[in-house]
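Final paragraph of the annual report: two paired records, presented back to back.
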Amino acid sequence: MKQLMKMWNPWWTEGKVPASKKRISRPETLEKILKLLDIRELICITGVRRCGKSTVMYQAIDHLIGKGVEPENILYFNLDEPFEDKSIGLLDRIFGEYIELHVPKGRKYIFLDEIQNIKDWEQWVKKFYDLYGEEIKFVLTGSNSSMLSDQLSTLLTGRMITQHVFPLSFKEYLDFEGFELKDPDIQRNEVLHYFNKYLFKGGFPEVVLEEDMDINHLRLTEYFNSILLRDIVVGRNIRESAKLIELANYSLSNVSTLLSYSKISNATGLSINSLKEYLLYLEQAYLIYQLNFFSYSVKDSISIKMPKKIYCIDNGLRNSTAFTFSADEGRLAENLVFVELKRRKLEFFYWKEKREVDFVIKGMDGALTGINCTYTDHIRQGEVNALLGFKEHFGEKVSRLVLLTKNLEKEENGISYVPLWKWVLGTR
């Protein structure tokens, strides 16, 4: 165990985090976590596997050492390894042997990667959090939202702050490509070149840094299998693993499509109850999301009965595993918008009457923004009519209408036509 610790904590001997661990910085993501390091509450970093949570941990460790924290006061441990003991006894052993090695004075920073692999970890963390007070700071990562269960929320109420990490945003993607964005309008053609790559390649850091398409396909397929097998099949003791994989493939093949439970049940052969359970597991592993119909009343029976729309965490992952037979630009563009809205922590839905509005953002004041994503400059009248119908239905509650296009930019009939690449950059 001690040798493993020394291998995973090279700063104990070298005094710094190796460059190979820090990789490329993600300021937008990192800053949110760095400002939480000085407060008492533990930090829980969540997100899909391989999205960069561990790298953010290493960058936070590098930040602490740069601020003057003694390297021996920082422990990193990867709990995703195949240890036979998955009980809190393993955590006792890790902490005990760490103290034996260094007997660190002052505040200790404990970074535990993929904490969800340890049964009842929250009880152990609470005990040490309460026992050591300001003398200990926990930074945890987890690849499954079930780790934030009701029981956990009760145990760690007032003790934990959660930060969610996504695959790279388009801004971060440009940083990884080494492209310096100065003026989007002047650099339009260059930005479009990278945006077209991002739309299909996705934002998993290792994939972005690799140019070989075959390697990326293998890598993304491995991510997909790891999410399903390690986080769901083994973690949930699923017996119908073939059905789960079929459901995952079906979901990714039908991103942005309206799907009723009965339709998915017929396609996969799963009962409605099993289907709902498996979709929940896929969501908890951050592989897919389900989008609900918009209604001001959460208990509205129409809202509950309406089909849901399914989206995937990453376009590259979707392209590598879904049964696709065409470029699917439109679906990928809409999926990208969904993930960006999640990244911005907005409350949003879809809406449909005669025609569909892809996304309805509900503001803190109840005001609504309607967004349709076309990813073309030849706009069908139906897309415009859908937004105008939405405005007519909800009246003064609608504050803005947006049509996301490929390059078309204008204001017409109360609708803002905005190029998708500009919208994801936040410049429009």
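The closing record of the year follows.
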Amino acid sequence: MSGAPEAGPSPDPAVDEHQLSQLFDQLDGDGNGLLEQAEVEAALRRLGLPAGAAYMAEWQRQYDKDASRTVDFQEFRRYVQSKERRIRAAFRSIDADADGQLDAGEVHAAAQALGLSVAPGEAERMVSMLDADGDGLISYGEFRRFVVMLPGAQLTRSNIMWAWLDSSDWLDGMEYRLGHMPPSQPLERLLAGGVAGAVSRTVVAPLERLRTIMMADSNAGRIGPVLRRMWADGGVRGLFRGNLASVVKVFPSSAIQFAVYDACKDVMQHFSGPGARSLSTAQKLGAGMVAGATACAATYPLEALRTQLAVAQAGSGGAGYLSLARLSLAERGVRGLYQGFSAGLLNSSCSMALGFASYEVLCTQWQRWRGTPPSTEERGLCGGGAAFATTGLTMPLENVARRLQAQGRPGFPRRYSGSLDCAAQMLRGEGLAAFWRGSLSSFAKVVPSVAATRLLYESIVELRGIGGVRRYRADASC
């Protein structure tokens, strides 16, 4: 409950104080002048919206400015007034005949215009869901009663329509339907993952090159000499050699990983059956494995070239991205771009399976420990913790893949016929420690990189409202 009134946005002149008071009273079940958690959860369930901890935390953040875990009328009014223009704009964009009411035909036309697959009967069900007075039409007040319960990032025309359709399905017992999303959503997911991965990888580019050299070169066993070698290879430019190739590879790879993982969770949620609210750890491991395998298959030539460029020295033949590609194709054909593919595929699949699943486990444990879902920043920490565990477990696979990717380049003669032969030679000639070569630089690079990627990705998703209210249903742990 708030004390003295705070400075806030100037009220929209169209806001009806009496209507706001009535709306607040409808939510305030016990009439004590405060919206408590149980009352808000009950209202969310009546509207078919998620009522789990993550959604409630988001709702509280936007309304409960004094963090009292209750919302009084002043807090409620202040937030609704700040969003009134956006809510009215969304309503007017659906109200084709501008009569101040929405009928099923207008709802159907608006959904179709946004690319949502909605049948006329579904539009009628959507209207019935919000039609409090039973006249077959949706007034602005009835529309606003639903929209004010959405997170602020969802207050766009497309996301409001998507949430409305999704909630209508949920109330009708359909639980979770595939395909009911704006066409822009898959692209936004891809861009969010790609941007997050590219930015974070650039920040840790020197550490990435350091660990790549130490993994690929059996003679590079100490960090100091490798760092001097990198600096001698062009100063600051030497530290970032291969970063452009890394970004070219990481952007699509990271985009595919996040998008495919989320899509797999959507499919699994759909087929989990009525009553399912969250996915099991085994299902998340499976989704992560598919995401890792898909990203690896789609971008492996870029990864192989990035490794070769990272170990190359300035002035060596084929030290540019395109020249390396031409050289590999000339020497071995397409096979040259897929050196070590089996080890890389296994490494990527296992890494993503463990990384995504352990991240979600850490989010769940954080919520149990703190009593609230992790914030965006705290999710970044969970991502870093998951990366620490995953890196230690999958480093042997990555070391094998790096050796195979680098062989054939100047200073890296061909020694290995395949993944098993490479692993056997490493074990016989260098011992078990060879599989964890570059571990210090790997932990120093991977943990902050993944933490930053997760932080950026979650920030973009939250800011853009990517995933709609559906992401709160499929991800009960967070």
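The domain at 184-474 is CATH 1.50.40.10 (Mitochondrial carrier fold). This concludes the annual technical report; the extension proposal builds directly on these records.
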